[in-house]
Amino acid sequence: MSNQPLEQMEDLQRFLEFCRTVEQPFCDFEDVENGNKVLTSLLKSEAEPYFTVIGIQKSHSLMCFWKYNDSVSLQEQPIVWLDSEGTPNAVVASNFRDFLSLLPYDTGAIYDWIASWERYLDNPSSQQTPIERFTNERIEMYIEMSQEDNPFREQFINWLREEMNIEPATQPVALVGEAIQSFPRLSQWLADRQLN
């Protein structure tokens, strides 16, 4: 498992600095100082080497690097959602930059997209694909809700563009689906290793 220290990840450090200095909410994401303690409240302690916590949201679900592949840097490892209530536990983005491109939609939208993809992949014949389900109008609704809830959302988007050269994802539901399908299903991976 990649042991690259978080301090060496320039993109992550720049993002966490933004989180610490922004004056009002830009999305439902907070830096977490006691990440391993929170992680072991959701998973067994044997899971610690596989995950590096980068943030938490209001329901105490975690966003983490999943140290899945030793041959790539931590910054290129997938970002996963570890739900405070046990489900969904899933990949949310293939890498950190993709994750940042999803945050302007807020974590509530991200949760809905992950849950929808997980349900669809469990039983594809019984429902619409998440891409069909989350129409442009529904995505616009998430944007409006994020704007209402997060006074500094536009400041965050400007920071992403100017400081990180990242645009908000134009097809966020597809981006989440591609990420989930590019890696083993996290919930099954955890169960197979008896880590949850």
Kindly summarize this structure in a few lines:
This protein is α+β, with helices and mostly antiparallel strands and 196 residues long. The protein has helices at 10-21, 35-42, 96-102, 107-122, 130-133, 136-149, 153-164, 172-182, 186-192; strands spanning 51-56, 62-66, 79-82, 90-93. The chain has one domain (6-192).
Description:
- This protein has 196 residues and is α+β, with helices and mostly antiparallel strands.
- The protein has one domain (6-192).
- Helices cover 46% and strands 10% of the residues.
- The protein contains nine helices and four strands.
- It has helices spanning 10-21, 35-42, 96-102, 107-122, 130-133, 136-149, 153-164, 172-182, 186-192, and strands at 51-56, 62-66, 79-82, 90-93.
- Strands 1-2-3-4 form a four-stranded antiparallel sheet, sandwiched between helices.
- A hairpin with a 7-residue loop joins β3 (79-82) and β4 (90-93).
- α4 (107-122) packs across α8 (172-182).
- The longest helix has 16 residues, at 107-122.
- The radius of gyration is 16 Å and the shape is globular.
- The mean pLDDT is 91.
Topology:
Elements (H helix, E strand, L loop, with lengths): L9 H12 L13 H8 L8 E6 L5 E5 L12 E4 L7 E4 L2 H7 L4 H16 L7 H4 L2 H14 L3 H12 L7 H11 L3 H7 L4
Antiparallel strand pairs: 1-2, 2-3, 3-4
Helix pairs in contact: 4-8
